[in-house]
Amino acid sequence: MILPIVAFGSPILRKKCVDISPDYPELDMLLENMKETMHEARGVGLAAPQINKSIRLFLIDTTPFVHDEEETEEEIVKQAFINARILEEVGDQWDFNEGCLSIPDVREDISRKPNITIEYFDENFEKHTDTYDGLTARVIQHEYDHIQGVLFTDKISALRKRMIKGKLMDISKGKVDVSYKMRFPR
Ligand SMILES: [Zn+2]
Predict the structure, then answer these.
(1) Which helix (H) or strand (E) holds 109?
(2) Backbone angles phi, psi at 77, to 5 degrees
(3) What is the pLDDT of residues 29-57, one digit of tens each?
(4) What pTM did the predictor assign?
(5) Which of 52, 150, 180, 181 is 20 to 30 Å from 1 at the Cα level?
(6) Residue 92: CB partners within 8 Å, gap ≥ 6?
């Protein structure tokens, strides 16, 4: 089932999400619906608050990124991250042009560290501690921010924030042309 994606301006995108337990009701169904929603919107990641659930859950599928980059050595990663905690972020900051399904038509260069170590449970509630780098780390960092109540537009300069203010306001009012189903705050 395709779920509507919560738009910028909705309070749920600003809440720090809570852990879930293995008996969370209909978790398999939720993950399936989130996957379907992410693919339909051509996203590389989707976090639970974006489908109106304030829980520490996100998933990524880097297939579109890896296909777009020529001669990349990146491997495709499809993974659900439950109750994730980033333990370490290291290396020299690098810029990458990010976008977000909750903030359509806005893209900004965001600076992040390239290597991360993250502890999480997979969809079978097996615990992992893994390291990621490159585009995969980038996508995880973006989605991880969502479960912390942080959006990529928080990380841009004051000048850029002023420049896109009107556009963000329009999105929060539903004044945006978007090809997938969205839920607007007003
Ligand atoms: Zn996002």
Answers:
(1) strand 108-112
(2) -120, 125
(3) 999 999 999 999 999 999 999 999 999 99
(4) 0.96
(5) 150
(6) 113, 114
